Give the backbone structure.
Amino acid sequence: ADMSPVPVLNRGFGGSRTGDVSAVFDRIVLPYKPGVIVYYCGDNDLGTDNTDSQAAADGFISFDQRVHKVWPRVPVFYIAIKPSLARWKNWPAMKRANDIVRAYAERSGSTVFLDVATPMLTEQGTPDPTLFLADGLHMNAKGYAIWTAVVKPPVEAAWRHSASR
């Protein structure tokens, strides 16, 4: 509903990591011939103690390159790994992964980095606790409203452009 009128086919699955997404790519992406792809993954890759930012970023980059081999003109939107209360200790690794993907997207020309992280931080640079459920990881409606404000305008514009081709 947040993305209306853009038709959304949710292919996300809980607990996913970039390797999981790659493993099911042929089943959850290829059959649908998408006009636009929105990707969120990496939060679980880095979790609370894994600091391999490059591997998390490379998982997305591999996904993106695979998409563009099949559909060179399909825009791919990468939603930044979010800061959260529950995983704040590992935010430096998550931010590094975001920075790697942002730089890649800037070079790519067909991939867009969507920064949901910055508006989720307080003036002190820490996660805003009012955006999360009691677990400190999953977002509440206020958190999702921030995402919608960042994600919807560029995705809707790309969808409208793809529909006109």
